[in-house]
Design a protein that fits this description.
The complex is a heterodimer of chains A (371) and B (240).
Chain A (H helix, E strand, L loop, with lengths): L1 H5 L5 H21 L6 H27 L7 H23 L4 H6 L14 H25 L4 H20 L11 E2 L3 E2 L2 E2 L3 H26 L2 H11 L1 H5 L5 H27 L1 E2 L6 H14 L4 H21 L4 H14 L5 H17 L13
Antiparallel strand pairs in A: 1-4, 2-3
Chain B lengths: L3 E10 L2 E11 L4 E5 L6 H8 L7 E6 L3 E2 L5 H6 L2 E4 L11 H10 L8 H14 L15 H13 L5 E5 L7 H13 L6 E5 L3 H7 L2 E6 L2 E6 L1 H6 L1 H8 L2
Parallel strand pairs in B: 3-8, 3-9, 6-7, 7-8
Antiparallel strand pairs in B: 1-2, 1-4, 4-5, 9-10
Helix pairs in contact in B: 3-4, 3-5, 4-5, 6-7
The chains are: A mainly alpha (371), B alpha/beta (240).
Bound molecules: adenosine-5'-triphosphate and magnesium ion.
The site of adenosine-5'-triphosphate (ATP) has 11 residues of chain B, from helix 1.
């Protein structure tokens, strides 16, 4: 079952996931009509969808191109910070209240470069252009100088760490260690109301579904085959005449854009952005979600992100202190036992069932379990 | 004019000189066998010609025009050089037909309709005897099948200069014979073929001329019969 859920070629897993997203979206519409899940659950659903989109972004380059980024939080944060700036401006423009942020920054008015960010399409464009340019530069420079594998992972981790240190400084101008919070209005809706939460969650689920459809179209086409070829043997591909640097940089940029969009969805749902979004731990965790879902299967990344984060949400109520240990255990399990994540688990399960059938352990085989 | 002119190249790895002032000219219409003991520098020469390794000195000129020693791997490939690696290198995640299609297309941007590319890929698979395996994943192939698949893949680029590094390593006698017939069929007046091999019998059946390398230098150049009779060749290679 899990295998068919994750299957990249067989479309069942993909269709099932899309169906699940459609049902979730319908529930959220019901919330808008006043009969669906409550505000708290709605908020969790929305956050999970944003994380799933982030995992999808990483799987695109790690699973299909074999490029591991341990710094995807950087693009997530770019989206998140720009969205926060948009929300502060928008809230200020609609309610006239000066955000606390301005006061502790010691500002009388928004700096000139904030101009226009209150308009959402502009803010969206700024986030995408910023993430795209940062990805273009980091990708092009690294791939051109043949940096790959572990070195690339380390570089991306160092980048996200440097960005975190930079943002922790109060004089950088983005709220320092306090970050930005106190968003009161989004798209003209009061933040924190059931309607606003449901709209945000719905947007996240819909964007996730669109992201899934788009990335699947990308990987199952001609470019997807070239991505797999790059992953399998880049030197071979280059010596057939392909410019693999262009391919890698292009997909790297697409991945960064998806991560930035995820950040834009995430920040309004948690109501705050601060430099901890750039912590190396978060960037590492994204890789864990993907690894657990089974990399190289877009649906796997989504499932991995949802499962791990749902567990994390639940544990943060039940036993907040044990999360780091659970996470470490999951990492060890994935690295040592199931290098292909849940996919291995289902394969192992299939193999076990086959062996039981061969050895005639009929009672354990559901297909033979008689009365 | 030579298809490939290797002019006085030297390659060093640290303080070790793998290629020592080697010169070699290969003509169109020719199949050149390159033999030599392990570590003689055969693969390194192919690495230089395909742009993977840069020589410390000397130059390599393709077709009297492109200076290979200054061009990128991508440009060298686009100028008509194709290379089969010593370790069979195919894309495990793709099917045989998809592998060959990648070789046929040769660039990121689509240049021909998918159906046409596939037809050409199937023709090539047929030529190397893998027509029935077209839609199987390359990762499942045997060693020999991978060797042939890689040959089909490099033929997809319709190479002017074809470099084959140990195409029969690990193959049975029957498979070796089949490969020899295949390589002979690839000979064309507008194509130069370089075959690196240990298997003397194989080289004898396909090569017009042979070059014997030893410690990064040319020890002998001429016919295979001549090589077998050459005292120095016997000493370093045959006589072991
Ligand atoms: N990247 C490298 N770094 C260091 N030494 C290298 C490198 N590549 C090759 N060498 C050395 O250069 C010499 C020539 O190697 P090469 O692979 O060209 O030999 P070959 O003639 O192809 O041998 P074989 O028949 O075993 O394939 C060997 O001594 C090898 O160890
Ligand atoms: Mg060799």
């Amino acid at each position: 079952m899990i295998r068919s859920l994750l299957g990249s070629s067989g479309g069942t897993g993909f269709s099932l996931t899309l169906a699940a997203l459609a049902v979730t979206a319908a529930l959220l519409v019901a919330t808008l009509a006043g009969v669906g899940p409550s505000g708290f659950l709605v908020n969790i659903i929305g956050q999970l969808a944003a994380f799933a989109l982030l995992a999808l972004a990483l799987d695109l380059i790690w699973g299909y191109l074999g490029i591991l980024s341990l710094g995807h939080g950087l693009f997530f944060a770019i989206g998140g910070y720009v969205m926060a700036m948009h929300l502060l401006m928008h809230s200020f423009e609609t309610t006239g209240t000066v955000p606390d942020f301005m006061q502790f920054m010691g500002w009388k008015e928004f700096p000139a470069y904030w101009a226009g960010l209150g308009v959402f399409p502009y803010a969206l464009a700024v986030a995408l252009v910023l993430a795209g340019v940062v990805a273009l530069v980091t990708g092009w420079v690294s791939f051109r100088s043949r940096v790959g594998g572990v070195y690339f992972a380390i570089i991306t981790q160092a980048l996200v760490y440097a960005a975190m240190l930079l943002m922790f400084r109060n004089d950088t101008g983005f709220g320092g260690n306090n970050g930005m919070t106190g968003f009161s209005v989004i798209f003209g809706l009061r933040m924190g109301t059931e309607t606003a939460s449901a709209v945000l969650a719905l947007a996240s689920v819909v964007v996730l579904a669109l992201g899934l459809v788009a990335t699947r179209a990308l990987v199952s086409g001609r470019l997807g085959r070239l991505m797999l070829a790059t992953r399998d043997d880049e030197v071979r591909l280059r010596s057939l005449g392909y410019d693999t640097i262009v391919l890698k940089t292009g997909v790297w940029v697409v991945s960064a854009l998806l991560a930035a969009i995820a950040g834009m969805l995430y920040v309004p749902q948690v109501g705050i952005v601060n430099p901890r979004i750039l912590s190396p731990e978060l960037s590492l965790e994204i890789a864990v979600w993907v690894a657990i879902g089974g990399r190289g299967h877009l649906v796997g990344a989504v499932i991995g992100a949802v499962l791990v984060n749902a567990l994390k949400f639940w544990l943060s109520f039940a036993a907040p202190d044990v999360w780091p240990f659970i996470l470490s255990a999951l990492i060890v399990l994935v690295v040592l036992v199931f290098p292909n994540g849940l996919l291995d688990l289902s394969r192992g399960f299939g193999a076990l069932k086959a062996r039981m059938r061969r050895e005639g352990v009929a009672s354990l085989d559901p297909r033979r379990a008689g009365p | 004019m030579s298809a490939l002119l290797i002019d006085d190249i030297s390659v060093e790895f640290g303080r070790f000189r793998a290629i020592d002032r080697l010169s070699l000219a290969i003509d169109y219409g020719e199949i050149r066998g390159v033999i030599g003991p392990n570590g003689a520098g055969k693969t390194t020469v192919l690495d230089v010609v395909s742009g993977i390794t840069r020589p410390k000195a000397g130059r390599v000129v393709l077709d009297g025009g492109l200076e290979i020693t200054r061009a990128s791997e991508t440009l060298i490939a686009r100028s008509g050089v194709r290379r089969k690696f010593q370790k069979p290198s195919v894309f495990d995640a793709l099917t045989a037909a998809e592998n060959v299609a990648v070789g046929v297309e040769g660039r990121l941007r689509r240049t021909a309709p998918a159906a046409e590319v596939r037809r050409r890929a199937l023709d090539l698979l047929d030529a190397v005897g893998l027509a029935d395996e077209a839609d199987r994943q390359a990762g499942e192939f045997s060693h020999g099948q991978k060797q042939w698949l890689e040959i089909a893949m490099v033929l997809g680029g319709d190479p002017k200069v074809l470099l084959l590094d140990e195409p029969v390593a690990g193959l049975s006698d029957e498979e070796t014979e089949k490969t020899a017939a295949l390589v002979r069929s690839l000979k064309r007046p507008d194509r130069a073929i370089v075959v690196v091999e240990h298997d003397m019998g194989f080289v004898e059946t396909i090569a017009d001329r042979v070059t014997v390398l030893h410690e990064g230098r040319t020890l002998f150049e001429g016919s295979m019969a001549g090589a077998r009779a050459d005292a120095r060749v016997i000493e370093v290679y045959l006589g072991r």
